[in-house]
Design a protein that fits this description.
five-stranded antiparallel beta sheet; globular; disordered N terminus
């Protein structure tokens, strides 16, 4: 059994077999680097036989950008839990897609309510990015951790033509939280919509969240839900923080993430993830 708490948080006892962490705003500093202290904590956890898994809205290309700095070479959960992939072997454990007919229904409905909304489809184990030209015009490299020139420039029909791991909506003037409210107000079912603090709304198949992806990976690894520790900062982390044996929100977390978590640690700039992991590993002694 282990005992630890967050930044001044309460003591908690549990076995620990898997650590799941969001990346942006959580594990990574604001400059998208991994601090030396955080890297030491991750390495110590791995040395203790604990699985350390990035769980992110990013695609594999975006995870690989920081994989060396974090020591990630095993399983990763991408597209908000829609894709489970091994970063070294490329093995795909699972993919969960949003059907084209659901995408089209959503696109048609939201365009009526919020004219000017544009779309992109992420496919092919996260490697394919199919954006409307108007979407690519709005995008920057920081949005999806890829050069907008690699997104392509497709018609809306082409964007909607195939299943998506993640279907992305954005608007040049309407903020993501406002757009998300509009999506949820449509009264449609068959999908799960969220946002990660980025410049767009992210839509997946119904029931697909970071929590759902983590549950599938844990089943594959033989890890019990109670033996998991999760970190996050954004609304798209809320389900995972609620599902994990212990959910820890960052000091910089959105209110939705804080409400779902068991405790709050320091911010991503203050090595909040490392603080909790260090306390967890101290219980091994």
């Amino acid at each position: 059994m282990m005992s630890f708490g967050g930044a001044g948080g309460s003591v908690w006892l549990m076995p620990l077999r898997l650590i799941a962490s969001d990346l942006d705003g959580t594990l990574l500093r604001d400059d998208l680097s991994v601090s030396p202290r955080t890297r030491r904590a991750l390495d110590a956890a791995r040395a203790a036989g604990i699985h350390v898994v990035p769980v992110t809205a990013r695609q594999p290309v975006g995870v690989r950008r920081i994989a060396q700095g974090a020591g990630f070479d095993g399983w990763a959960l991408c597209s908000n839990g829609a894709l489970g992939i091994h970063l070294t072997t490329g093995e795909v454990l699972f993919e969960r897609h949003l059907a084209p007919e659901m995408q089209r229904a959503l696109a048609e409905a939201i365009r009526q309510q919020v004219p000017g909304t544009v779309f992109a489809s992420i496919r092919e184990a996260g490697e394919g990015f199919y954006a409307q030209g108007e979407y690519a015009d709005l995008a920057s490299e920081t949005d999806h951790k890829r050069d907008p020139a690699t997104m392509g420039r497709y018609s809306l029909d082409e964007v909607l033509s195939a299943p998506s791991l993640k279907f992305v909506l954005r608007h040049p003037e309407v903020s993501p939280p406002e757009l998300l409210v509009a999506v949820r107000a449509l009264g449609l079912t068959g999908f799960h919509a969220t946002h990660s603090g980025a410049a767009f709304v992210e839509v997946a198949a119904e029931g697909i969240t970071k929590a759902a992806g983590l549950a599938l990976l844990c089943e594959n690894l033989g890890v019990a839900q109670a033996d998991t520790l999760a970190f996050g900062d954004a609304p798209n982390d809320a389900e995972m923080l609620a599902w994990a044996g212990r959910g820890v929100a960052m000091g910089n977390a959105h209110p939705e993430a804080r409400a779902a978590a068991d405790e709050v640690t320091l911010s991503n700039e203050e090595d909040g993830v490392a603080v909790v992991i260090e306390r967890a590993l101290a219980g091994l002694g």
